[in-house]
Amino acid sequence: MQIYLLFRAFTAWKYRTIYHMDIGQNTGINRKAKLDKNIYPEGIHIGDNCNILGGGNYFVS
After folding, report:
1. What angle do CA 45, 24, 27 make, to 5 degrees?
2. What is the model's pTM?
3. Residue-wise pLDDT tens digits, 9-57
């Protein structure tokens, strides 16, 4: 369980710092979720206490 929490925190940190996405606190992002990293990653805003599941595609228009 603790390893899962570390991966969850690392994934959110990666999207916040490398891709400059607006991701809230206590947000869980599955590492298989496909977020828009190429075109406009700054346009993704995810609120606090959300869970983003794998298998979904999240794009910004």
Report:
1. 105
2. 0.76
3. 888 899 999 999 999 998 888 888 888 888 888 888 999 998 888 887 7
Burial class (CB in 10 A: 0-12, 13-18, 19+), 5: exposed
Q: Which residue has the tokens 């406009």?
A: 40
CA distance 21 to 3: 24
CA separation (Å) from 60 to 6, 9, 14, 38?
Answer: 27, 23, 18, 10
Q: Tokens for 15, please give them.
A: 């999207």
Strands 57-58 and 34-35: parallel
